[in-house]
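Do me a favour: review this protein, sequence plus structure tokens, and tell me how the chain folds. Record follows.
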Amino acid sequence: MQTCLALLNLGGGEMVFIFLAILILFGSKKIPEFAKGLGQGIKEFKKASSDVSNELHNAMNETPAAPPSAPKSPAAPAQPAAPPATVPKA
């Protein structure tokens, strides 16, 4: 946790050095493209998270559907089955 806090306490000189290093590494034409892509990614993430939260709220506010009825037993045959054939004893 201490290292995370140390990264947040950057002074002006350190920030200028970091920006110059990024400028040298990526060039002045790539930085706006990176920023645009980062902005679009953040926008899509916010949209997706709001969609998920809306779905959760809608699911919680829906009235539950009626439970399905118990399965019915199969219908009895209309005609009784024929008696089994008998074999005469000899």
